[in-house]
């Protein structure tokens, strides 16, 4: 194939803009974007694809059918992808922390060797040191993480989880398989969430809680067996909810739990209230785990 001088110049300039340390092992079939930097003792597998300006710190590894978007950073010792059927796809501007493990085989006995398994991660996520994120357990499912999430050190996101956007998981937050998390949730440290639970948007889970049932939208739970403590008042205010929306949400909780789900037409017209009550009702269907038990607000404790 005839190559023009201009095309040769572009190829030469692209190669110059990359940095690959002599001790790194980069397969000839790997696809590298412009401005990629690969540090000492890294390895890049034959099916890997790295976007522009990706940076791999020493001892990080990309294997299997794995795609990194532009401007992704792998810190020292990070491992992304696995030599399994299926793929790991990671968007732009993500940071994978020191010795984090992302996109490897799940820890689910349902997984059958040879089955395809998948992980999709969006943009602008920070996954900190020693965190682990696993691929799906079955070919017809995918582990998904959205955009703008902060996943702190030693967190675990298991197979087939669905995590939305702008969530903050504090250190040692553990998500069992098939957990669904909405948007703008916040967990304290040392939280454990049982498989198949749903965590509603704008909710807060106190540190050290064990969550075995669903957490409704906009609420706060805590406890060794997490109990519903009320609205996530501070979180809602920080997220821009008006005082009237917050007050309406609090009144609706009182009605729902203390007045046998008595209907209130005025509150039902507030979108945030309607969404919260609907999330509670959804959790009470037969195929769900129900909601966290509510703590009686008449107790001094």
Automatic annotation (TrEMBL):
SUPFAM superfamilies named in the record: Trimeric LpxA-like enzymes (SSF51161)
**Entry keywords, A to Z:** Acyltransferase, Lipid A biosynthesis, Lipid biosynthesis, Lipid metabolism, Transferase
Q: Which domain of life is it from?
A: Eukaryota
Q: InterPro entries, alphabetically? A: Acetyltransf_C, Acetyltransf_C_sf, Hexapep, Lipid_A_LpxA, Trimer_LpxA-like_sf
- Cite the Pfam families for this sequence: Acetyltransf_11, Hexapep
Domain annotation UDP N-acetylglucosamine O-acyltransferase C-terminal: ranges: 214-292
Asked if the keyword Acyltransferase belongs to this entry, the reply reads yes
Q: Keyword Transport, does the record have it?
A: no
Q: What is this protein called?
A: UDP N-acetylglucosamine O-acyltransferase C-terminal domain-containing protein
Organism of origin is: Penstemon davidsonii
């Amino acid at each position: 194939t005839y190559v023009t001088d201009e095309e040769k110049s572009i190829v030469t300039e692209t190669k110059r803009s990359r940095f690959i340390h002599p001790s790194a092992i980069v397969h000839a079939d790997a696809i590298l974007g412009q401005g990629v930097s690969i540090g000492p003792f890294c390895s890049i597998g034959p099916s890997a694809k790295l976007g522009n300006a990706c940076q791999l710190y020493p001892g990080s590894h990309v294997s299997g059918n794995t795609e990194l978007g532009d401007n992704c950073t792998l810190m020292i010792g990070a491992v992304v992808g696995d030599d399994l059927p299926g793929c790991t796809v990671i968007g732009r501007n993500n940071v994978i922390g020191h010795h984090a493990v992302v996109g490897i085989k799940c820890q689910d006995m349902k997984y059958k060797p040879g089955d395809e398994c998948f992980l999709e991660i969006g943009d602008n996520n920070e996954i900190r040191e020693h965190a682990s994120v696993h691929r799906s357990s079955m070919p017809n499912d995918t582990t998904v993480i959205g955009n703008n999430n902060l996943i702190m050190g030693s967190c675990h996101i298991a197979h087939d989880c669905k995590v939305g956007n702008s969530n903050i998981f504090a250190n040692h937050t553990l998500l069992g398989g098939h957990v669904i998390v909405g948007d703008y949730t916040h967990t304290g440290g040392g939280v454990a969430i049982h498989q198949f639970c749903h965590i509603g948007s704008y909710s807060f889970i106190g540190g050290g809680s064990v969550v075995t049932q669903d957490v409704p939208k906009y609420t706060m739970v805590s406890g060794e067996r997490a109990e519903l403590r009320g609205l996530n008042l501070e979180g809602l205010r920080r997220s821009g909810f008006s005082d009237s929306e917050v007050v309406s949400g609090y009144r609706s909780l009182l009605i729902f739990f203390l007045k046998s789900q008595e209907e209130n037409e005025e509150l039902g017209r507030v979108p945030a209230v309607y969404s919260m009550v609907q999330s509670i009702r959804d959790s009470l269907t037969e195929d769900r785990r129900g909601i966290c038990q509510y703590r009686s607000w008449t107790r001094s404790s």
